[in-house]
């Protein structure tokens, strides 16, 4: 066996408490190298009486490695452990410091999980695992109160630009909650709603005031209450990495320079503040002069922003925060942020905007989840652009699952497009078959799916500003068949726990392949998803138990013959079947 590829370390995604009684252990090995793996585990103070070999299962794989996993429920919430690796008749024992051909005589040289301290257990809010989110860009969703319109408001549905306004507001969202209820939505993520100068509101002017173009705190309370009555949770956008140029403390620095009492609220390299060759002499978001970076290490800034986070949760009953540019803010700020938010609402969902691998933020002391853009990239590369084959896609998904503790993957925010990206239908060249396949995977995968407003009715659009078009409310211009597809997916997902938290096993994902088959299983709840990404029909032969199966889209019954289901799918076809108990 290739021992150089074998890896484990305590903590992070390799050894962690899943809950207050259960420890998960993972081990990495070269792909296809090991035939069996066991955890050799027991209590460090009663080793001889408690030691046991726990079989590990192949949890997931990527292009180079297999990841093995097991769980242990130790009687005294602590664990001493090593591993037994097998490849055929070859047996190797792994300790914290080396590999041995003989069983270690001294258990003190093994790994250790010292104790499950309840306060250290990473416990994201359970409701998120069952949620289906809908992202709303308030300025472009619906105009419910024309009296709030900005000057020079454009006719609804005309061409968006980075600067123009259409009058979308909070009342408009209230007026169209029936649309979300009909669809099956249980969570809304709003891009910023606080006072700002732009249409996107990421240049905050006043963190304690609802933007007057959107309404006021009374309207916001009305909206949140109306959502809660329908079983819809509400997530607002917190822009704490930077403020806007019109934020009062920054205005004071602009006016008073080094004499401003707020000069240390920002990262100023020299005075007076100015922009030279398009680069400001103060830190900002992406060199944008209108968005000066806040100094979150400054005690006054920190206190101000943490008060903002707590205020809106208590004032309007907010269910969580999405955190803009989260990876550019210091970790210590986010640790204190979590304490403040969870004290105000223990069930609040804390979602960070990070576009890459995010393990340092998902250890239980900062975020509950991140926006899962590596998932987004893999789905688009396979189902839409075709730059990945089935095997490479399965490997990409396996790598993503291996990166985080299970409880983080269960609440990952899985999106396919947003206000920051081209719309999925545009990426697919207008091909709704590709959009459906990508969305089917999104809704049958672990984590909470999010629909970008209008995707369910066939809206398209290039990157900003094209992806920020006005929502289409004319039924004659909506794709109601597509809406029905989304609604059916939400219904299927909600009816089957396996699709939300069940184990994932790829059944078919071949090199150069365009057929994808995978199983989601949780106890007796067993679901198999089949998808054909090819422009011609293809037949699947899937090994299954000799039992009856039901097509969840059509209600048709199927039965395996000699342990195999043979199912022919048309070009870009799909099916979802469940085992009938």
UniProtKB/TrEMBL annotation:
Pfam families: Alpha-amylase, Alpha-amylase_N, Malt_amylase_C. CDD domains: AmyAc_CMD (cd11338), E_set_CDase_PDE_N (cd02857). Residues 135-493 form the Glycosyl hydrolase family 13 catalytic domain. Keywords: Glycosidase, Hydrolase. SUPFAM superfamilies: (Trans)glycosidases, Glycosyl hydrolase domain. PANTHER family: ALPHA-AMYLASE FAMILY MEMBER, MALTODEXTRIN GLUCOSIDASE. Belongs to the glycosyl hydrolase 13 family. This is Alpha-glycosidase. It comes from Paenibacillus borealis.
